[in-house]
């Protein structure tokens, strides 16, 4: 198990992670540090626990928005998907007709 020391709001934290995941853990810490920087820029310095709580809420809100974002295809992709579906239906019908002719 690897150990990484990350810095968040000027404090160092040593965290364990799976081998090879060190860079990912550092990027995640960077995301938190970025949110804390945004909070400080808006409202000034707060206590450590409050900053971490607010950063957590910002990340949770972003996660919520991503999970609830519409997953509709862009119009051009939807048109293409509709065309493919119609083509499959036509091909299936043509095979049914051919099978009926063969059986007759």
Summarize the structure.
This protein is α+β, with helices and mostly antiparallel strands and 104 residues long. The chain is built from three helices and two strands; from the N terminus they run E-E-H-H-H. It is elongated, with a radius of gyration of 27 Å.
Tell me what you see in this structure:
- The chain is α+β, with helices and mostly antiparallel strands and 104 residues long.
- It has 2 domains: 2-67, no CATH class; 71-104.
- It contains 3 helices and 2 strands, in the order ββααα.
- A two-stranded antiparallel ribbon has the order 1-2.
- The radius of gyration is 27 Å and the shape is elongated.
- The protein starts with a strand and ends with a helix.
- The model has no long low-confidence stretch (mean pLDDT 84).
What keywords describe this structure?
104 residues, alpha+beta, two-stranded antiparallel ribbon, 2 strands
Indicate the percent of residues in helices: 55-70%
**In the residues, how many domains can be counted?**
2
Number of strands: 2
Beta-strand percentage? 5-15%
**Low-confidence residue ranges:** none
Order of helices and strands: EEHHH
| Strand numbers in spatial order across the main sheet | 1-2
Mean pLDDT: 84
User: Count of helical segments?
Assistant: 3
Largest sheet: 2 strands, antiparallel
Instruction: Specify Rg, calculated over alpha carbons.
Output: 27 Å
Structural class: alpha+beta
Gap from first CA to last CA: 70 Å
Shape by Cα distribution: elongated
């Amino acid at each position: 198990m690897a150990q990484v020391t990350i810095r968040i709001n000027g404090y160092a934290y040593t965290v364990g992670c799976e081998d090879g995941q060190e860079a990912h853990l550092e990027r995640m810490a960077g995301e938190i540090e970025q949110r804390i920087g945004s909070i400080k820029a808006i409202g000034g310095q707060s206590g450590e626990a409050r900053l971490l709580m607010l950063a957590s809420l910002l990340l949770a809100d972003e996660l919520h928005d991503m999970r609830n974002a519409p997953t509709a295809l862009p119009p051009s992709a939807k048109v293409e998907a509709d065309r493919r579906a119609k083509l499959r239906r036509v091909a299936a019908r043509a095979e049914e007709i051919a099978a009926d002719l063969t059986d007759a």
